[in-house]
């Protein structure tokens, strides 16, 4: 990858000699989103060769520029986030991957099936993960209901899903959220429990199976609190599991 800017033509220095030769799409690389299970942060733009290089967390470490010597990172603080295939087995990743796979499987198996699978948009992924973390970090926030009477959709900054998604990608989208509890020696809920709950709710199922949705993001976080009235185990201290999935056309 190399940076061409708005003026087409030879730019920088290619590793095989001469200037880079552009072909095909102009890519838009995110730089204001956190690293996700399917992306890697730490990529920088070199002002000497105009290419992208991996810097990681240590500035200038182990880089070799085609111009000679080390790459020179641009003066901006941007560290770009590049997507990749695969979900490493880190904490919280398997839960998010399971939701992603369960939903795409359901979309393929409906009649008629969705012609294409959902794909992860890093911006939406950041929205979903941030909301799950927001709910986990603010016990009681889940109980606040949106204008349609559904709990769990308000953020601690008074935002609602359509706003959060529009801030990220430029137009509104939709959101499914689910919370489940465990207490004492109870077995923690699995992502399948959240998925089944969504499938059992007409409104959430429509979101999930809507073939007009092409992009998604998934969030999962664990918090603590007192299990609210109306639920099994009410009044006991428990562990809360927050699942979020957002959708966009």
Architecture overview:
With 249 residues, the protein is α+β, with helices and mostly antiparallel strands. The chain is built from five helices and seven strands; from the N terminus they run βββαβααβααββ. The protein has helices spanning 93-109, 122-137, 161-169, 191-199, 202-209, and strands at 39-45, 52-54, 80-83, 119-120, 174-182, 215-226, 237-248. The chain is elongated. The two termini are 27 Å apart. The mean pLDDT is 86.
- The pLDDT mean sits at 86
The main pleated sheet reads as: 4 strands, mixed
Biggest sheet strand line-up: 4-6-7-5
Helix content: 10-25%
Structural class: alpha+beta
* Uncertain residue segments: none
Gross morphology:
elongated
Number of strand segments: 7
* N- and C-termini, Cα separation: 27 Å
Number of discrete helical segments: 5
> Roughly what fraction of the amino acids lie in strands?
15-25%
Brief descriptors of the model:
single chain, 249 residues, alpha+beta, four-stranded mixed sheet, three-stranded antiparallel sheet, 7 strands, 20% strand
Layout of helices and strands, plus pairs?
Blueprint: E1 39-45, E2 52-54, E3 80-83, H1 93-109, E4 119-120, H2 122-137, H3 161-169, E5 174-182, H4 191-199, H5 202-209, E6 215-226, E7 237-248
Parallel strand pairs: 4-6
Antiparallel strand pairs: 1-2, 1-3, 5-7, 6-7
Helix pairs in contact: 1-4
Q: What's the short story on this structure?
A:
The protein has 5 helices and 7 strands, in the order βββαβααβααββ. The protein is of the alpha+beta class.
